[in-house]
Amino acid sequence: MSSVIVFLDFFGIAVFAMSGALTAGHKQLDIFGVLVVALIACLGGGTLRDVILGAHPVIWVANPAYLYVGISAAMVVFVLARFVSLPLRTLEVCDAIGLAFFTLAGLQKAQSLGHSADIALLMGLMTGVAGGILRDVLCNEIPLIFQREIYATAAIAGGALFLVLQGLGVAGSVALFLAMATILVLRLTGVFFGLSLPRFLLSKP
Amino acid sequence: MSSVIVFLDFFGIAVFAMSGALTAGHKQLDIFGVLVVALIACLGGGTLRDVILGAHPVIWVANPAYLYVGISAAMVVFVLARFVSLPLRTLEVCDAIGLAFFTLAGLQKAQSLGHSADIALLMGLMTGVAGGILRDVLCNEIPLIFQREIYATAAIAGGALFLVLQGLGVAGSVALFLAMATILVLRLTGVFFGLSLPRFLLSKP
Amino acid sequence: MSSVIVFLDFFGIAVFAMSGALTAGHKQLDIFGVLVVALIACLGGGTLRDVILGAHPVIWVANPAYLYVGISAAMVVFVLARFVSLPLRTLEVCDAIGLAFFTLAGLQKAQSLGHSADIALLMGLMTGVAGGILRDVLCNEIPLIFQREIYATAAIAGGALFLVLQGLGVAGSVALFLAMATILVLRLTGVFFGLSLPRFLLSKP
């Protein structure tokens, strides 16, 4: 079980770093820019969570292996992208797995620090989506997550389900599995059917 | 007195959340984007202040009611904007009240943590304006506050007046009232007369 | 020796504040915007480092003199720019000195807090370049550092050299001098010969 969690953790870091590298690549950044954007995409959410909760040392200061995984994943994309066209759908499926894992990891970290259910849910959401928001801000784009098919909604629904199951006394690993599956299914539904949330409409004067 | 302060605090949160929701709305964000931008607009200044001062738990982790007020205010705007054209002037008056209250609340929090007058003044300013700056950065705009009629200047003037009155031994509630009135009057003068600060001019080569 | 360090510290703050003021000026910000961007350019890197490491009080809360130096330098640029055309090359040379000093100051601060070599190197880099990144994000630009001739590379090379010399038992002041000289020479080579890192290339589908 524990080795599955370690695998998912590094897997999430790697795919989020790849999404950062690709976004930076579309802006024609140099390799340093690509690495910075990739690291912020994969570690920004966890860093923001830890800094706001005052949970020092932050995740990658405590364990620099996260940095090396993120840098390696970004380098792979930097090199590969010169030769092959990366399949967007594959990346979106990986990203959905990363979202599911990060959200629940962030939620559980906040709980382990003694925070209430609402703060834990928000911290899970922040861990899952803040990296992507910072990535887009750095690349001078309005965050994709604010405009895209069901993304944060999936994270919120999965996080809330986990809290409900936990409240009902369901075993931790079962609750975790069901919550992650919920996030994955909702997010992939969004990807494959192009579902979006209602947009803000201004009444015409 | 204390219930007035609680009211002003939540009132400030609500109007800043509304300003965030409207800015996000002009960018056609979806409802999740609107909520995130609204929360960052109303809580970003206080969060940044608390994180920089190392004052954990940060304001809304200590009291999640702030989150609910911000979310509710943004939802009201999200729904209302479909039906009515929101009066800009009304919002700007509310925003001026929020600015006045947030600036002095931030200043006093820094003082209560034992910081000197200059750091307290800067923290008051940060509490009042950083949310609006982050809101605009997230929406991919140059912050309005950097280009607008007297805004930060009003906050600085009111904060400085409070420190001077305090130094002269004036009673806290009187100093607070005069400082808030100063911010309000200066800011509304800016709104209604369109006054601006001098811009940066480059000499032509 | 120690007075040289204090001088370099304030010199770095001043030149980074000037770079912020000039960037803000090109965007026609008002004087408040110019001051905020200047302060974030000169203090953003150190603030981010201290907040991530949980090293409170952060640098300018501990010593507000940094604020006054940054504000003064920005005001000088704000006034001077109306009358004279500022020589870009001079500014870039000053900026290179600031980069060299900030990188090594940040690296040594992280070491003094007991962090490992890789985290110290990253913190040095962050101290040297994060202010410039935040400056450009606030001005709604893709960070120049992501697209420019050798900049971060110079900081990384100098920081790494310092760590190697330290590991070899070279005296601290000698290692410091050689590392700063390396950053300066590399950065100025980039400036005067227009060298750049390879950009991200996408294979054409």
Tell me the Rg of chain A in angstroms: 17 Å
Q: How much helical structure, as a percent, in the residues of chain A?
A: over 70%
- Helix/strand/pairing category of chain A: mainly alpha
Return the domain count of chain A. 1
Global geometry of chain A: globular
Element string of chain A (H = helix, E = strand): HHHHHHHH
* Quaternary state of the chains: homotrimer
Number of strands of chain A: 0
Kindly estimate the percentage of residues of chain A that lie in beta strands according to DSSP: under 5%
Number of helical regions of chain A: 8
Mean pLDDT of chain A comes to: 88
Quick one: biggest sheet of chain A?
none
- Poorly predicted regions of chain A are none
User: Which two chains have the most extensive interface, and how many residues on each?
Assistant: A-B, 31 and 33 residues
N- and C-termini, Cα separation of chain A? 58 Å
Description:
Three copies of one chain form a homotrimer. Chain A has 205 residues and is mostly helical. Chain A has one domain. In chain A, 75% of the residues lie in helices and 0% in strands. The first copy, chain A, has eight helices and no strands. Chain A is globular and about 50 Å long. Chain A starts with a helix and ends in a 12-residue tail after the last helix. The mean pLDDT of chain A is 88. At the A-B interface, helix 2 and helix 6 of A face helix 1 and helix 2 of B.
